[in-house]
Design a protein that fits this description.
By secondary structure, the protein is an alpha/beta fold. The protein contains 9 helices and 10 strands. It folds into 2 domains: 1-80 and 167-249, Rossmann fold, CATH 3.40.50; 87-165, no CATH class. Bound molecules: adenosine-5'-triphosphate and magnesium ion. Residues 14, 17, 19, 37, 39-45, 204 line the site of adenosine-5'-triphosphate (ATP).
Length: 249
């Protein structure tokens, strides 16, 4: 299968502090790939490089074989790279329906002020309801988003990412800050939403990683320690020593 995302000799430093070194990484079309590693390993930095938040110090990033090393987030979005943002991406004063509709509209590249035809309006509303159903927020569709639980707000955030129908979905610790129950619900939701889709998930929680991912890459001190199936990673002696041992899994 073809690689949808590749990084070649990717390195990054923050004012001389080397955070990522020579990362050669690839995600195949249709796989769910998890990136794990101890605190400070460089996971979020890697995520931010791929999603255009930072420009790498050196190396290359290819998305669908196009060089995106210096591409800005909005351009990546248009190319089909979707990321689940932290809670700040949703409009708390608006309803889940309004939030999702905004994302659906942006996918359809329709601006509110150009919006005239009623049949298209129906179509947009139908797509919006479809997503609300998928993320189990139909009941709350017309409540103010600020009144929803944190877990439900995160579901809404996943729905926003999904509504733009990206070719690659990226999550950075989607269950951070959730209760155990919320986390389990979120994992189930992510599993359902990303079926037959391509996803990269940066995650701390081993239960989440091993239940969601087809392949796992372990980062350690800014370098790739191993890549493999969850089983291979669990059995990898170097990984156990560097990572699993430290977190009492
Ligand atoms: N904007 C920044 N400026 C300077 N140093 C940074 C910056 N962002 C991250 N770092 C440093 O880079 C290293 C990697 O951080 P990063 O956030 O990528 O790790 P992480 O693997 O996501 O960790 P965590 O599991 O805690 O989320 C750390 O030493 C961190 O202090
Ligand atoms: Mg992080």
């Amino acid at each position: 299968m073809t690689d949808i995302l590749e990084t070649k000799a990717l390195s990054h430093d923050f004012s001389g502090l080397q955070v990522l070194e020579n990362i050669n990484f690839a995600v195949k079309q249709g796989e769910r790939h998890a990136i794990i590693g101890p605190n400070g390993a460089g996971k979020t930095t890697f995520f931010n490089l791929v999603t255009g938040v930072y420009v790498p110090s050196s190396g290359k990033i290819l998305f669908k074989s196009v060089d995106i090393t210096k591409a800005k987030p909005y351009r990546l979005n248009r190319m089909g790279l979707g990321r689940s943002f932290q809670i700040t991406s949703i409009f708390l004063k608006q309803t889940p329906f309004q939030n999702i509709r905004l994302a659906v509209l942006s996918k359809n590249k329709i601006r509110f002020n150009l919006f005239r035809r009623v049949d298209r309006m129906d179509e947009i509303n139908e797509q919006t309801h479809e997503i609300l159903r998928e993320i189990n927020l139909e009941q709350e569709a017309h409540l103010e988003t600020s009144t929803l639980s944190y877990g439900k707000q995160r579901s809404l955030d996943f729905g926003m990412a999904l509504a733009t129908e990206p070719d690659l979905l990226m999550f950075d610790e989607p269950t951070a800050g959730m209760s155990r129950d919320e986390s389990q619900t979120a994992v189930e939701l992510i599993r359902k939403l990303t079926e037959n889709k391509t996803m990269i998930i940066v995650e701390h929680d081993m239960d989440v990683v091993f239940s969601l991912a087809d392949r796992v890459t372990v980062l350690h001190h800014g370098e790739i320690l191993a890549t493999g199936t969850p089983r291979e990673i669990k059995e990898n002696a170097g990984v156990k020593k560097a990572y699993l041992g430290e977190t009492e899994v």
